Amino acid sequence: MTTDDTHERRLVGGWEGRYYEDFTVGDIYKHPYGRTVTETDNVWFTNVSMNLNPMHFNEAYAAETEFGERLVDGTFVIALAVGMSVIDVSANATANLGYDEIRHHGPVYHGDTLFAESEVLAKRESSSREHVGIVTTELRAFNQDDDLVLSLERTPMVLKREHAQPSPAKPTGWPEGIGTQPEDLN
Question: Mind telling me which residue stretches traverse the membrane in this protein (predicted)?
């Protein structure tokens, strides 16, 4: 690897997610990276979760239903949408307190591409833990045709910035001593 001698090398922190103070009621975050749902996703999730509804794994059965084909397991859709929101909503959560008002507005099929957004509905200080606040968001997932397929309310406890400890040399999730260290830059 070569470096340009005219530029100083330095460790720069990456995106660490939002802290409690960063949330404002009414803000909407359009989460990056839509995700196409594959048949493999559906089959694996259905098997792992032991969902025995033939609508998810039996093509002949599903073909005779009003949908005419297999549907993606709704709990997979929930897991995927929540996962898509982590980068903006709960990368700094210490716990998820609840998922409420879960609604499946339309079916999801193999090959659909889902997109998710979250709107901040409420926030408050925790009454029992000074290092976190509680944030409630509405998570909405849409397919490639802009059809709303899922909505739910999600309430995580989110760290306050003053209690976070990541640094450019040791971001969240990295063990100490891995990769470029500050002393490597001298």
Answer: none
Q: Write down the residue that tokens 């802290």 correspond to.
A: 19
pLDDT per position as a tens digit, 88-102:
999 999 999 999 999
Query: What are the angstrom distances between the C-alpha of 17 and each of 27, 33, 87, 139, 162?
Result: 15, 16, 6, 17, 14
Structure tokens at 15: 């995106």
The answer to whether 131 touches 20, Cβ cutoff 8 Å, is no
| Residue 129 neighbours by CB distance under 10 Å | 15
pTM exceeding the 0.85 threshold for the entire prediction: yes
C-alpha dist (Å) from residue 122 to 24, 133, 134, 153 = 8, 11, 8, 11
Phi, psi of 70 (to 5 degrees): -65, 145
Nearest to 20 by CA among 91, 79, 118: 91
Task: Find the helix packing angle between 39-48 and 74-89, rounded to 10°.
Answer: 100
